[in-house]
Write a structure and sequence with these properties.
Blueprint lengths: L22 H18 L7 H33 L4
Helix pairs in contact: 1-2
Length: about 80
């Protein structure tokens, strides 16, 4: 180790944001609402609002799923296009 060695400073790494597919998250959320809906069916007479909250959560999952389908399609297009 003589004094003639030079070290080059490392270039900082560029961080790439995570971009996971989102459709599984939307389907998972809808599945959770469906399970909750099935669990509340026996209690529908005493806790009717719980049942309808689960129905609403499941139905609101449909626009979320459609949005995530569009997001993932654009994600695939972004990854296929070369970066300028």
């Amino acid at each position: 180790m003589s004094g003639t060695e030079t070290t080059t400073p490392e270039e900082p790494r560029t961080l790439v944001p995570l971009d996971p597919p989102m459709v599984p998250f939307a389907l998972g959320g809808m599945a959770v609402w469906l399970v909750a809906l099935l669990v509340t069916i026996p209690f529908r007479d005493t806790h009717e609002s719980w049942f309808w909250i689960c129905v609403a959560g499941l139905l609101w999952g449909i626009p979320g799923l459609l949005t995530m389908l569009r997001h993932d399609a654009r994600r695939r297009k972004r990854r296929a296009d070369p970066q300028p």
